[in-house]
Amino acid sequence: MGRRVLSLTSGRIALVILTVIALLALLGPVIAPHDPLATSSDTLAGSSGGHWLGTDYLGRDVLSRLLDGSRVSVLGALEVALTALGVGAIPGILSVYLGRVFEWMTLRLTDTLVALPFLLFAVAVVALLGNGITQAMLVTGVLVSPLFYRVARAATLAVARSPYVEAALISGASIGWVVRRHVWVKVLPPIAVALAQTIGVGFVIVSSLTFLGIGVQPPAPTWGGLLASDLGYLTQKPWAPLVPALLIMITVWACNLLADAIRDVSGEAGRALVNNRKARAHRLAGTDSDADLAHVHAGGA
Hints:
The structure is a single chain. The chain is mainly alpha-helical. It is built from 12 helices and no strands. It is flat.
């Protein structure tokens, strides 16, 4: 599936953008030109050779704070997505095989989680457990998990009645073996689409919470925190919120673009794409062969 995604222009663009964001998260604090927490008397300065994106209201270098804050945003989004994947996908697959009681309990729990406003619930949990990004993201991941539960359950139901799956169960294969051998391969593409979308949702959630000052204690830099602080000084620097806002928008757009690319190359659509490319390559090869033959005949004449 990875090669098929890379064969699409949208898939390559999304992977390039997300790779750059991941490198910023890994190397941002190292390549930052200044200490992101160091203040100076040069407040609200414009772009210059020493400060490419200027300084904020405390004289701190904006570029350094953006680079340093990228790690919190990326890790927070991954925590949301991976927590939702683990909490939702596994019960979704097992609900098809573990009987009516387990199915009923997981469905009712999923309906309950869907009814809860996850952003407000995350704020309440942070208020109870303390201001930390990890607990906020874990709770948010649990509240987002019904998406994975429903996707995994629907995909498993489509496979569970297949003749080869029923034959494996009749022959005495365990549920775990059937899931690993037959079900997971079919469930993986829709889960991959949901995972890419959820990473984008995670970026929005992290940015929203840090915009409100929740999850990260000041003066630690975050993209949402930078956006919030810049909005207070629009008179002096009206362009300042554009950079963190563009980073958030481009990252979320790349996640959605990757999800669309995975969806386009998986299942019947993926097989149709491969068949169309093979047919096009065959036609081009046939055209080249006809041209070569015509050239040979022309030369013989």
